[in-house]
Specification:
The complex is a heterodimer of chains A (142) and B (135). Chain A has 142 residues and is α/β, with parallel strands linked by helices. Chain A has helices at residues 19-34, 55-60, 80-92, 112-124, and strands at residues 40-44, 62-66, 71-73, 76-78, 101-106, 128-131. Chain A contains four helices and six strands. In chain B, a hairpin with a 2-residue loop joins strand 4 (68-70) and strand 5. Classes of the chains: A alpha/beta (142), B alpha/beta (135).
Chain lengths: 142, 135
């Protein structure tokens, strides 16, 4: 005797009341994924600006002038490849923190990525960065 | 003859709860977006030896158009120091972190006064950069 298989034509639909919860969970998932922003970087300690400067102390410190594509250490052009070694050599014989101060002066057109490279190498060599920023002053000539 | 009053149940349809939650979420996401700076266009510079910035009080950003923002809101260079000072309040050292995000091609003329303002406001500066994988 043949037994006929019962074919059911009933559609099994997922419960529509759950769609809201599914949407909620999907949003939470994508929010968590999207909120991962870069939050790592380099700490930099800079002293507060002073308008007066001590000339004799300034003369003792290392001076770095950052140009658009090159950096000058105490007036000498130093290639990027030698910069780290040069800074380490200059700072090696200076145990006191006040002697490790490096005065950084940048040209107006220096891009941030080059400035960042130079200053991070100074810090990695043990230097303490001080920025020298020229103030613009308007002088009225009578 | 007495006519019986029909009692009609007035329930909040539970089917709509999901939609309400969805719309509330969208609302709060839009509000949150206005506070942060994730919508701004900038490319970070690279550096070696980077570490986690940790919790920050303020985020200063200079985008690819050299426009300045504090916590996602446009701000002028002249009022930056005062605003950061207000945000930092009396927080002790260690809790005064200010993130600085600068587009890699922005020039010193633009970013140095910003660094000076953060420093003068007593902020602990963290440059947000990418790890330099080429060394």
């Amino acid at each position: 005797m043949k037994i006929r298989r019962r074919s059911s034509n009933l559609l099994i639909e997922p419960p529509s009341s759950a769609t809201g919860d599914i949407a909620f969970n999907l949003i939470v998932f994508f929010l968590v994924c999207a909120s991962v922003q870069p939050d790592s970087g380099r700490h930099q300690t800079l002293p507060r600006s002073e308008e007066t400067e001590k000339k004799e102390e300034k003369d003792k410190n290392i001076e770095v002038v950052v140009k658009r594509q090159v950096a000058l250490v105490n007036g000498d052009v130093v290639p990027a490849a030698d910069f780290s070694a040069r800074m380490a050599a200059l700072l090696a014989g200076k145990p006191r923190p006040e002697d490790k101060v490096v005065i950084v002066k940048s040209d107006d057109d220096v891009p941030y990525h080059f400035w960042m490279m130079v200053t991070s190498q100074i810090e990695d060599a043990g230097g303490i960065i001080t920025l020298q920023i020229e103030e613009e002053r308007e002088v009225q000539v009578p | 003859m007495k006519i019986k009053r029909r009692a009609i149940r007035a329930d909040v349809p539970s089917m709509a709860m999901g939609d309400i939650a969805f719309n509330l979420l969208i609302f709060f996401v839009i509000l949150a977006r206005a506070q942060d700076d994730s919508h701004l266009q900038w490319t970070p510079a690279e550096a070696l030896n980077i570490e986690s910035a940790g919790h920050s009080v303020a985020s200063v950003l200079i985008d690819s158009d050299e426009k300045l923002y504090l916590n996602g809101q446009p701000i002028g260079e002249s009022s930056l120091e005062m605003k950061i000072n207000e945000l930092l309040g009396d927080f002790p050292p260690g809790d005064r972190t200010v993130l600085l995000k600068v587009h890699r091609e922005v020039t010193a003329l633009r970013f140095e006064p910003v660094i000076e303002a953060i420093s003068n406001a007593g902020g602990e500066l963290v440059h947000i950069v990418e790890e330099d994988r080429d060394g």
